[in-house]
Structure formats: C-alpha cells, structure tokens
Amino acid sequence: MFGKRAVELINEIANCTPENLPAYNDELVRLVIEEVNEHYNQMSDLVRSMNRSGQDSAEWGMEHPEEASALVVHHACILRNKRLLMTYVKERAERIKSLKWSSRTAAMSIRPQLSATEVEFQQAYDRLLTKYCRKGTGVGMDLTLDTTPPSDPELSVRVRKDCGEVVLPSGTFFLKKNTCHIMPREEAEGLIRDGYVEALEHDNCLLRWDT
Amino acid sequence: MLSDGQDFYDVTAILAGETQVPAVVRKGVKGLGPALDPSCAGRDLPANTQLDLPMWLLPTMAARTSAHVMLPRFYGEKMRRKLQAGAHCEDLRSRCLYFYDVAEALNDIVHQPALEQLTMMAFQGRYRELLTKAHTAAEGPALTKLKAKLTAEETNLFAAGAASMSAFERYRYSTSTAIRGPRIGPNAQKGRLALTRPALQDIANQADSRRPGNVRK
Predict the structure, then answer these.
(1) How many structural domains compose chain A?
(2) Residue A45 in domain
(3) Where are the alpha helices (DSSP H) in chain A?
(4) Residue B43 included in any domain
C-alpha cells in the first residue's frame, strides 16, 4: 500500500521519548522520494494520454473513469507523502530546539544522530540564541539556565544590622538598620544568607519576635 | 485532505489516518489493483470491488464519488449494544487506537447521526471513571489493566488528569521558597517566626482570654 514507508518515519519519531532523537533515516527518506517520483511519472503518463485524446479533463474523466480514478489516487499519494516527509523534518527540528532548552549535554549528545542539514540548523539556532542572551546584543542573561522563571527578579529586604555603604552591581545602597530596600534577587541572596538583611514576606504575612 | 481545524503537522492525526476503513470502489482504478487490494488478481482494480482503504485516501475518493465509504465494525450495532451494557468495560484500544479521531473524520464523509451518538455515548460512559481513576489510582496492576483499554485520546486525557492532580498536590503541600537568613552564627535569626495574619489573630485572642477580668460570654 502507498505511503507505508513514510509512516515508518513518523512512527520512528512518535515512538521515541521526547528527550531522545532517532538517527536521521536517510535511506527511508530516499525511498519515499523515489515513491513520489514514481507516482509523478505515472500521473504524467495519464495526463499525456488525456492531452493526446484532445478532450477537456471533464470529458476525458467521464469517458475514462478508471484512468481518472488512478490519477486521483496518485495525486493523493503524492500529497500524503509530502505531508509525512514535512512532518518528519519539522518534528525533528522541534526536538532539536527543545533539547537545546532542556539540556545542554543532550543537545551535544544527539549530534551524531543528525543529518548534515540538521547539524547546520542546530549550529545556526545556537548562534541565534547565544546572540539573544548576550549582554550587548540581547537581554544579557542566559535564558537556558532556568526553565521556570523566578516570580519576581527584585526583592524587598529589611536591614537587620548597620552595614554602611554597600556597592552592588545594580548600584550603591546605604544599609542602615530597619530601613527597607528593593534590590535584585541574586544580589540580595548573599546578604540574606549572611544575615545582614532579611527578605520581607508577602503582604499577608507578618514577622514578629517570639516572646 | 485536511478536515476543519486539523493541523497539517499533527502526528496523531497522521497516524489516525492509517486506520483501515471498508469501502466499495465504484469506478475501477487502472494499474493500481495489487497496490490497493493485495488479493486483486489483475493489474487493474475492477469497479464495485469491496476493500479496506486507509482513512487518508477516503475524503479524496469519496468527494469524486469514486468510493462508497462504509462504517467499520467497531462503529456498528454490536459495539453499540456493548457500549450500552457498560462503556467503561469495553476495550476500545484493541478495536481502534484512535477511536474518536477516526469517528470525527468519518463523520465528515458519511454524515450519519448514529455515528455521532455512538461516539458520544462511548465518551460519556467512560469519561467519569477515566477522570476519577486519573486523580486517585496508584500505579499497580489495576491501573495497568485500565490503561490497556484506553484509546490514544483517552490516554492523553488520563495523563492530563494525573498531571493536574500531581500539580495540585505539589502546590498544596509545597513549602515556602522564600530565602531565609542563617540559623546559626553571629547574625543568626534565632527566635524568629513567620506568622500569618490568622495565626497572629489566634494568638491575640488567646492573650485576651487569659487576661484577668476579661471574661468572654
């Protein structure tokens, strides 16, 4: 039956876990393309015979229903194979992209499974993402580090001990006891862990000395 | 041919398209006899041959009245009686892995209200138990037995139900992710407590009740 080889390609992808990628099946892709070419040749023969008859397509279809049916089947098979091949390529490209985000090591380990074009695509995607994450040309932070973003990049803190003037990458803070400040979470984290400041809880939560 | 709302690149829809559906080819097909029907002796497929065709080929052939599409046995009267007797017991997976997707695609071709009613009855009969088990059942032989009966669509629904329950439990029993100060050392936050407003209110009420002369009625 037609289209069976192309379905094997889709089954390869569907039966593989999202963290893995099967090797690019060059041989099967070549066979599917050969099948499409075969359908095209047979379609061309039928169209030539239609043209030779000198009738228009509707008349020819009425007079030669068997040939018209064969034409329809060949055309449907070509469209089907095209859809399956495009889905195969697209699914693999999506996997390559998602592996770049989920795991850096996995992205490198699948390199032997890729075709030459896919390696080119992976390298171009890497370059694009690196450029976007770079400080000068993009957002200035590595977006692949955290798959779940923090709720708030800034944190409200209250100073527990006088520290004087503290210079942080985001600016200079004068940390006087019981004053409150808003500072970037990654800068506040070190001060909190050292006990100089404390994170203010959510509005509906109060801190008090236990008596 | 794509039906309305169907994604061109949808792998599930593609695999569902491989389901074999019985049909009668009204007009013969030249040169494709053995390819369409392996039991065909000649090179051409004769007219009015009954054979099983893949789902993806049917819309094109049915639109040009080259084929008359019939409902597969798993949408027949016998299945209807089985579903009426107990839809949740029926092993639909072994009949057709994409039971609902294929029914939806077939309905665009055959336009039979009975098909809609049958699939609706199957889904309604199985949905409640499916979702209850997804929320409560633990991994084990009973769950494996249940999963073996589910179609691909139901398996996705089951996985979504189980994921929603685990997400709820993670939220319900999660501890605060707030950054805490040191518990030991010179800057330790000994004796500190984080209390919510209701907890503080409880403490204030208890203090009031213990105060001399403050008798609550």
Answers:
(1) 2
(2) yes
(3) 4-14, 26-53, 57-63, 65-102, 104-109, 116-133, 185-194
(4) yes
Kindly report the CATH number assigned to the domain that includes residue A25: 1.20.58.1030
Whether the model pTM is above 0.90 = no
Question: What is the arithmetic mean of pLDDT over B203-210?
Answer: 66
Which domain does B131 fall in, by range?
A: 72-173
By residue range, what is the domain housing residue A14?
A: 4-115
Task: Give the pLDDT band of residue B190 (cuts 50, 70, 90).
Answer: low
Q: In the predicted model, is pLDDT for residue A74 greater than 90? A: yes
Q: Both B115 and B164 in a single domain?
A: yes
Residues 72-91, chain A, touching B (beta carbon < 8 A):
72-73, 75-77, 80, 83-84, 86-87, 90-91
Pseudo-torsion of CA B34, B39, B43, B46, nearest 10°?
Answer: -110
User: Which of B8, B9, B61 has the most A C-beta neighbours within 10 Å, making it the best mutation to test the interface with A?
Assistant: B9
Whether A209 and chain B come into contact, CB under 8 Å, resolves to yes
**How far apart, in Å, are the Cα atoms of A32 and each of A2, A74, A94, A118, B70?**
10, 14, 22, 19, 30
Q: What is the pLDDT of residues B94-143, one digit of tens each?
A: 999 999 999 999 998 988 899 999 999 999 999 988 888 888 877 778 88
Q: Are residues A45 and A105 in the same domain?
A: yes
Backbone angles phi, psi at A141, to 5 degrees: -150, 150
How does pLDDT run across A151-210, given as a tens digit for each residue?
A: 677 888 899 888 888 888 888 899 999 899 888 887 888 888 788 888 886 533 333 333
A188 interfaces chain B, CB cutoff of 8 Å: yes
Name the minimum distance, in Å, from the CA of A44 to any CA of chain B.
Answer: 14
